[in-house]
Amino acid sequence: MGFHHFPAVLSEEDARPVDRRTVRRVVGTFRPYRRKVALVGLAIVVTSVLGIVNPLMIERVFDRALFCGPGCPDLDLLYLY
User: Fold this and answer.
1) How open is the CA angle 11-13-6, to the nearest 5 degrees?
2) Cα torsion for 33, 36, 41, 42, to the nearest 10°?
3) Helical (H) or strand (E) element with 48
4) Disulfide check for 68: which of 21, 39, 59, 72 has CB 3.0–4.6 Å away?
5) What is the mean pLDDT of residues 63-76?
6) pLDDT in tens, 4-55
7) Three-state DSSP class for 2?
8) Half-sphere exposure of residue 63, counting CA atoms within 13 Å on the CB side?
9) Alpha-carbon distance 43 to 56, whole Å?
10) How many CB atoms are located within 10 Å of the residue 69 CB?
């Protein structure tokens, strides 16, 4: 199997604006699969939110439960997190 080499710069034909007919044709192609497309979109949103939650939880664990000052670590709060 060979490798496909794509041009690094788009030609003028590829850089033209997308018209409504093209958008309608693409949407029409995916119409029978709209539930699956919606599920994929939902999965992307959920994984994005989970990617944001992880560093926020790490910050809370370190700042509030482990290194909060006198009386730390707060194991009850650490268990809760």
Assistant:
1) 40
2) 150
3) helix 34-60
4) 72
5) 85
6) 666 566 666 667 788 899 999 999 999 999 999 999 999 999 999 999 998 9
7) coil
8) 6
9) 20
10) 6
| The pTM of the whole model exceeds 0.85 | no
What gap in Å lies between CA 21 and CA 60, rounded to an integer? Answer: 50
For tokens 């979109």, the residue is 41
What the block records as the tokens of 69 is 């000052």
The identity of residue 29, as a single letter, is T
Contacts by 67-70 with C-beta closer than 8 Å and gap 24+? none
Site of tokens 């670590």: 73
